[in-house]
User: Which sequence fits this backbone?
């Protein structure tokens, strides 16, 4: 084995052959992977995309030699990294591959580091010298490394923590001398493969763009391979050379990023592409119909057939194999999309009207917020305060929808809590017409539902005091139907539902008390593209049917564009730009909005999004000038001297921007 | 960080003050008259009045409390009605024995608890059996387990002595730190003898707390071993042992420590029963005998010692938790 893997260039760094993996759950046996074969070559970025439950995380953990430890897990097939069998090899050998040749970056930087260990120890624990640890940190873009190694994880921002994870993946010094391995190992001691499982999903767009740029640099400079697991084709598009699409534990299409993104052959790939929320106005997203198959009851034939518009009678008969056609494209479909040259992925068959493109409502506001301020005491400091929200005004008309967009720490959640009356503003006022408090929808529906109460009972609970028990129960069932859940869902517990279904249940529960306003905190950011789109459409539907107003907070510009008529962009507790949605994304004016828009991934292959410099500072104390000045590409000396206030741009009272440079640039 | 430590210590003194206040008030409510008990039955009314004035019992209650605190600082807890000696002298005699028993018991509870916790993270038939047995022993009353232990290990098998601190009859009533003293003087035979005497009472006392500690540790370890951070540790190529000790146990320390703190309270209460069962010449026996004679100064003295140890130990646990979890240090 040692002799083979003395890197012939064509030899793959990692190879997966006919991998099957299944395990038991309380409800039956799950076949998570059903015959997957893949190669990864050095210097290559392979993106593994698919909806949640497709098996992509299971596959990535198999590459690390850490298959899920569930009851009666059975694995067949093989996974080799640098010539070592990662499934059945000696555990010491697999461990030394992990230690020396593999790097791993996971989704949630907040939970992936040990909170009780200093950053430095977590880096050196792997057998890395202190000097090398410092170098890795600087390569991963962590500033002030000597100070950082003495810090604890909770003292770092999410973006920095993800960089620390990355630094941890960056390899050791010295030559490798593990038992049985002394193979591919470059002079630098860099890993041969980095497995990154949704590495940017928990990050803001600007930090996401920075991390992706870093990945791209690393593979160029060190030639390591990267397996990028993601549910976002936009992330895949930015740095992947090849894309593999996984559905129900099988690959449905593998190919170069350009082929997959511009000319998908498998209907599922096309469906994923069309379901993606885009900032580009020409792209009207279409969700994939139906839901992924129940992993306990997978069909005999193509698992996608039930949702596929192109399915024929033979699709259900047998499993389609991944085959390569004459043009060199590999897909697993008996009735693939025609290889029409120039067929743009963006042209969807049926177009649903854009939710946001309707004239602004002039109805009575159901929520009015006037110049609210909120500051918090800083732990360990007597004088300094954190100015979370510093003078924000807004109003949401009946049946209207407003989105607040900004990165973490911009104060959008504080504002939202004040909007719901959960937090008293220091200054300013919050009015609800009728005194009816808004209902809240959270990002993580799983943890906002009571785990031991059935969905039906949770909805009915909100109706307490109205009518008989039976009438409440039927009203609850009606509400569940309205949000697109079938009546049977009323009897199930939250954990028996999928993420999308749970979010629907949470919305049904919120609607039970007949609110005038629904306040949504990142309602879809934990969901797949197709699911997000359907939830957003459902929100728009109930908004129109019930004349409900929606206030949504999100860091996802595309989600805002699809739901809101008006958008406010927040930075460090202030609104920096306000505009009708269609104008804001067509023609952003504030440098921050422009930066955010540019940093948002698109499905254009190989487009590495330009990044905003740095990360938002914390809003300690009152800044003298514009809070964005430190990161602004258009900054002028006078920007740092006086604070920037919202000014009208043109005639529309809804179009305002807090930037003297932007205001000046408008032709009078 | 320093501020948090100072706050914790200051609040500990606050709680201790409340404890003294409670004891003082109990003393005042009790029917026993310290002056009358000082003179006995034959005292004249004038004698009683004079002594009352001398001791300050005619003063307002607030002044009496301040005086009580003053005497407390001078380690004056009054005189025992039974032994006719100052309560503090009695306490000083009995505290070392109880301290040794409690310390040994705590050590056993810790070791046993960690072992049970680690065992619980493994799957298998054996762990279920261990859990069943541990629940049984922790739910049986302490005196019952103690008597069973004496019957089995002394009467039947003759492995361990039935009670007392030592086999040496000359030292049978000795006070002081018998075990630690012999250990320091390096009297190996003596240490062995003292350890054999300690083993059974300390283990009986430790059973309940060890199960509670083990269960908490097992619960938090199980959660932590499913955490992302453990996946990171494994992905780094650490050995399973390093993952378990450095990341698993380290993170499970916080909840386990707070459970241990609570259990020490139970352990201090259990000491009394165990000392009686094993004729251990400590605070428990002293208290038992004092209750028989309604010796209130002595009873309150023991209560004061046990209460104060509980408060101090829990403050120490609080501080240890700060050391265990860096996130707690930067709060507030």
Assistant:
């Amino acid at each position: 084995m040692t002799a083979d893997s003395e890197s012939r260039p064509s030899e793959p760094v990692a190879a997966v052959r006919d991998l099957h993996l299944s395990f038991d759950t309380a409800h039956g046996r799950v076949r998570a992977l059903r015959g997957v074969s893949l190669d990864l070559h050095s210097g290559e970025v392979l993106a593994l995309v698919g909806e949640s439950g497709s098996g992509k995380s299971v596959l990535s953990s198999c590459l690390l030699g850490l298959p899920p430890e569930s009851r009666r897990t059975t694995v067949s097939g093989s996974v080799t990294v640098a010539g070592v069998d990662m499934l059945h090899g000696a555990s010491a050998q697999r461990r030394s591959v992990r230690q020396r040749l593999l790097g791993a970056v996971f989704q949630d930087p907040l939970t992936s580091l040990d909170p009780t260990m200093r950053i430095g120890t977590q880096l050196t624990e792997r057998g890395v010298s202190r000097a090398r640890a410092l170098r890795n940190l600087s390569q991963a873009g962590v500033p002030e490394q000597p100070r950082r190694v003495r810090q604890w994880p909770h003292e770092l921002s999410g973006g920095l923590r993800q960089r620390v994870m990355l630094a941890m993946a960056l390899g050791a010094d010295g030559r490798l001398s593990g038992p049985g391995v002394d193979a591919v190992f470059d002079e630098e001691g860099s890993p041969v493969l980095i497995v990154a499982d949704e590495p940017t999903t928990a990050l803001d767009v600007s930090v996401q763009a920075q991390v992706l740029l870093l990945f791209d640099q690393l593979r160029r400079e060190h030639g390591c391979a990267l397996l990028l697991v993601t549910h976002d084709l936009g992330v895949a598009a930015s740095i992947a050379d090849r894309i593999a699409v996984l559905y129900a534990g099988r690959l449905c299409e593998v190919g170069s990023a350009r082929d997959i993104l511009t000319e998908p052959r498998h209907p599922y790939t096309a469906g994923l592409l069309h379901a993606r929320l885009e900032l580009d106005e020409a792209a009207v997203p279409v969700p994939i119909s139906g839901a992924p198959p129940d992993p306990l009851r997978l069909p005999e034939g193509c698992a996608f057939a039930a949702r596929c518009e192109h399915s024929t009678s033979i699709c259900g008969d047998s499993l389609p194999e991944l085959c390569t056609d004459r043009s060199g494209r590999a897909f697993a479909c008996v009735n693939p999309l025609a290889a029409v040259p120039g067929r743009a992925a963006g042209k969807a068959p049926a177009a649903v009207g854009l939710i946001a493109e309707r004239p602004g409502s002039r109805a009575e506001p159901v929520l009015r917020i006037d110049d609210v301020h909120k500051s918090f005491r800083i732990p360990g400091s007597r004088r300094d305060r954190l100015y979370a929200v510093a003078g924000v005004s807004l109003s949401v008309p009946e049946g209207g929808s407003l989105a607040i967009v900004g990165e973490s720490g911009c104060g959008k959640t504080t504002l939202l809590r004040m909007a719901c009356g959960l937090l008293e503003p220091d200054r300013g006022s919050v009015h609800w017409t009728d005194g009816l408090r808004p209902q809240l929808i959270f990002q993580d529906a799983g943890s906002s539902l009571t785990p031991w109460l059935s969905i039906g009972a949770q909805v009915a609970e909100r109706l307490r005091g109205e009518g008989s028990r039976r009438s409440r129960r039927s009203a609850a069932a009606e509400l569940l139907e309205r949000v697109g859940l079938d009546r049977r869902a009323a009897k199930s517990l939250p954990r028996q539902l999928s993420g999308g279904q749970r979010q629907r249940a949470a919305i049904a529960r919120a609607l039970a008390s007949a609110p005038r306003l629904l306040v949504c905190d990142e309602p879809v950011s934990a969901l797949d593209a197709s699911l997000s789109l359907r939830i957003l459409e459902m929100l728009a539907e109930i908004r129109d049917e019930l004349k409900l107003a929606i206030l949504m907070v999100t860091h996802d510009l595309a989600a805002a564009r699809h739901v809101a008529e008006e958008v406010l962009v927040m930075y460090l507790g202030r609104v920096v730009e306000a505009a009708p949605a269609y104008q804001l994304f067509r023609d952003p004016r504030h440098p921050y909005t422009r930066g955010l828009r540019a940093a948002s991934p698109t499905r254009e292959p190989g487009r590495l999004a330009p990044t905003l410099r740095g990360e938002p500072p914390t809003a300690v104390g009152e800044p003298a000038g514009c809070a964005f000045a430190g990161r602004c590409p258009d900054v002028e000396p006078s920007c740092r001297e006086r604070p920037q206030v919202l000014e009208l741009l043109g005639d529309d009272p809804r179009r305002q921007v807090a930037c003297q440079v932007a205001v000046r640039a408008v032709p009078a | 960080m320093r501020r948090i430590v100072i706050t914790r210590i200051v609040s500990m003194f606050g709680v201790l003050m409340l404890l003294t206040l409670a004891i003082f008030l109990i003393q005042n409510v009790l029917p026993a008259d310290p002056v009358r008990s000082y003179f006995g039955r034959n005292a004249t009314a004038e004698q009683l009045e004079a002594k009352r004035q001398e001791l300050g019992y005619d003063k307002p209650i607030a002044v009496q409390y301040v005086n009580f605190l003053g005497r407390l600082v001078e380690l004056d807890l009054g005189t025992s009605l039974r032994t006719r000696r100052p309560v503090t002298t009695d306490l000083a005699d009995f505290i070392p024995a109880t301290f040794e028993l409690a310390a040994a018991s705590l050590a056993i509870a810790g070791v046993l608890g960690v072992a049970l916790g680690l065992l619980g993270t493994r799957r298998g038939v054996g762990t279920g059996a261990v859990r069943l047995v541990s629940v049984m022993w922790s739910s049986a009353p302490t005196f019952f387990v103690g008597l069973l232990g004496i019957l089995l290990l002394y009467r039947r098998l003759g492995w361990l002595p039935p009670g007392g601190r030592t086999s040496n009859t000359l030292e049978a009533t000795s006070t002081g730190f018998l075990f630690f003293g012999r250990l320091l003087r390096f009297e190996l035979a003596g240490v062995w003898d003292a350890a054999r005497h300690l083993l059974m009472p300390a283990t009986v006392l430790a059973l309940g707390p060890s199960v509670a500690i083990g269960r908490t540790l097992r619960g938090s370890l199980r959660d932590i071993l499913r955490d992302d951070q453990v996946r990171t540790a494994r992905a780094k190529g650490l050995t399973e042992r390093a993952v378990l000790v450095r990341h698993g146990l380290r993170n499970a320390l916080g909840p386990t420590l707070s459970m241990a703190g609570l259990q020490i309270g139970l352990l201090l209460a259990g000491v009394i029963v165990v000392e009686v069962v094993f004729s251990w010449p400590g605070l428990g026996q002293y208290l038992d005998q004092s209750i028989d004679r309604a010796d209130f100064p002595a009873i309150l003295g023991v209560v004061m010692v046990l209460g104060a140890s509980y408060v101090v130990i829990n403050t120490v646990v609080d501080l240890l938790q700060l050391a265990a979890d860096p996130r707690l240090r930067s709060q507030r």
Observations:
- The longest strand of chain A covers residues 28-40.
- The first helix of chain A runs from residue 56 to 63.
- The radius of gyration of chain A is 26 Å.
- The interface with chain B takes residues 61, 64, 66, 95-100, 102, 104, 106-108, 111-117, 125-127, 152, 154-155, 165, 168, 195, 379-380 of chain A (CB under 8 Å).
